[in-house]
Amino acid sequence: MKVKNTKTLAYIGEFGFIDIIKKRFSKTGKNAISGIGDDCFCFKSGGQNICITKDMLVQDVHFKIGWTTPYELGQKAVEVNVSDIASMGRVKPEYIFIGLGLPSDIPIEFVKKLYSGIKKSCDKYGILISGGDTVKSDKIIISVTLVGVGNQNVIKRSGSKNGDLIGVTNTFGDAGAGVDILYKYGTKRRFSPDEKYLIKKQSLPKARLKEANKISNYLTSMTDASDGLYISIGLLTKSADIFLDKIPVSKQLKKVVKDEKRQIDYALFGAEDYELVFTVPRSKAKLLKKLVPEISFIGKINNSGKDCKVRYFYNGKEQKTVYSGYKHF
């Protein structure tokens, strides 16, 4: 008697779903540089690297009406895609295509402010709004495709070498803490300046394009931390030592979240920080700090042992760490 396969998306998760797609569509073409599994698809054309990424923002999944303004939402839709472009190295975002799913009763003023936010971020990076599509939907859906162009080697998620240091830009955990504050209090609470800072990091993130341009020539791999630091590390390597006490957290997070373990949990598992996570030869570490002082080194690639896994340490003692962040399915 045959038993039907009843596995669901919730069972295999987002990355299990991506693995299915990769197995079915593994061919990338003779000019391809990076394919499914990197932050962008990149290919050679006329001596240049063309990098393409797509990201979506869905109402009640990535944002709630009343928690963020349409002006902020428009900026965020651009920034999260620029973040993917940044993670490929010295690539300039050039052309953007915007798909919108909108309820028919949405106020015109909302749409105008949304596009004002989109234009603000596009003008910031010199991006040309080049097309898109609009359809009716029950909830607001913003689907953005961004095309970038570069003429130097792109940085992929693969490429790290044994002994490389694992580095990050700026701080982690702010966005995750910010969204938890909103879920706990809604918008009725009079937030402190520190709470407002955390909320802003979630509603209006900033891509690290400038930082990527400064350091990419020296890196062996890179990704952005859209899904959280824990996930990002796993995308770069399957074998590393991570020092939890080295992960940078903001003074605002420390003031709002007093417990140090919770700070670390936010830093590891809180998503939407959109910082860069990368690997670099140890010999280049001082140079990177000089170029971007906000960089911190939180671990190293360690392929020397028999066990191939990412190990987490706090004050020199190995810690049992299990993922407890957001899951798409």
How much of the residues is beta strand, in percent?
Answer: 15-25%
What is the string of helix and strand elements?
Answer: HEEEHEHEEEHHHEHEHHEHEEE
> Structural class per helix/strand content?
alpha+beta
Number of strands: 13
List its salient traits.
single chain; 329 residues; alpha+beta; 7-stranded mixed sheet; 6-stranded mixed sheet; globular
Can you give a write-up of this model?
The structure is a single chain. By secondary structure, this protein is an alpha+beta fold. Helix content is 34%, strand content 25%. The protein has helices at 9-24, 70-86, 108-125, 174-185, 193-203, 209-215, 229-236, 251-256, 260-269, 285-291; strands at 32-34, 41-45, 48-58, 92-102, 128-136, 141-150, 165-169, 221-224, 240-243, 276-280, 295-301, 310-314, 317-319. The longest helix has 18 residues, at 108-125. The chain is globular and about 60 Å long. The chain starts with 8 loop residues before the first helix and ends in a 10-residue tail after the last strand.
